[in-house]
Amino acid sequence: MIITLLTTIFRIFTTIFVIFVLIIGLLNIFSNPNSRGLFGFKGYTVVSESMSPTLNTGDYILIKQIDKQALAPDQIITFKDEQMLVTHRILTLDQEWITTKGDHNPIQDMKQIKRDDVVGQYVFRIPLLGKVMILLQNPLWFSFIIGILVFRLIYLIVYHKQNVEENPKKVK
């Protein structure tokens, strides 16, 4: 009984883990600022405290592409600033220029941005997931996660094979 319960918990946990890793992996693949994203969504890791306490270093944020004419003050947007992406709040905007500011910064950003530089609008955050994403850039940790995924796949194959051998009429 206890073994069956532990096996079921293990299967559920590893399945959820695999699905989660696949979704985050796909999201990252499609998160290039010039791409359409995954169903219009892109994910990024917060790397500074400029938006705290709203967004903290290590948070993973999801942004959604929006109509750039629908931008409004107080929205949190991600935009291109030279070679990097910045996520700040809109203070003011007109037909061409947008003024932004990080919630934690005492003054507004020195440069205004154009609407074409906007990548998307902030939707929600997953606290600390960005730290995990950074950790996964380390080959050792990445190999560990891949090992877990491979172990899960082998387990599914062996488990299915055992069920077929034990109950050939039940398993299709």
What's a quick, concise take on this entry?
This protein has 172 residues and is an alpha+beta fold.
Descriptive notes:
Residues 38-83 form the Peptidase S26 domain. Its EC number is 3.4.21.89. It is found in: Membrane. It comes from Enterococcus sulfureus ATCC 49903. The chain crosses the membrane at residues 12-30, 140-159. With 172 residues, the chain is an alpha+beta fold. Helices cover 37% and strands 24% of the residues. It has three helices and seven strands. It has helices at 2-29, 129-135, 139-166, and strands spanning 41-45, 60-64, 76-81, 84-93, 97-101, 113-114, 118-126. Strands 1-2-7-3-4-5-6 form a seven-stranded antiparallel β-sheet. It starts with a helix and ends in a 6-residue tail after the last helix. The model has no long low-confidence stretch (mean pLDDT 87).
Task: Give short descriptive properties of this protein.
single chain, 172 residues, alpha+beta, seven-stranded antiparallel beta sheet
Q: What proportion of the residues form beta strands (DSSP E)?
A: 15-25%
Within the largest sheet, what's the order of strands?
Answer: 1-2-7-3-4-5-6
Beginning-to-end CA distance, first to last residue = 25 Å
What is the residue-averaged pLDDT? 87
Structural class by sheet pairing and helices: alpha+beta
Helix content: 25-40%
Elements, N to C (H/E): HEEEEEEEHH
Name the shape in a single word. elongated
- Poorly predicted runs are none
How many DSSP helices?
3
Number of strands: 7
Largest beta sheet, briefly? 7 strands, antiparallel
C-alpha Rg (nearest Å): 22 Å
Protein name: Signal peptidase I
GO molecular function: serine-type endopeptidase activity; signal peptidase activity
Main location: membrane
Domain Peptidase S26: 38-83
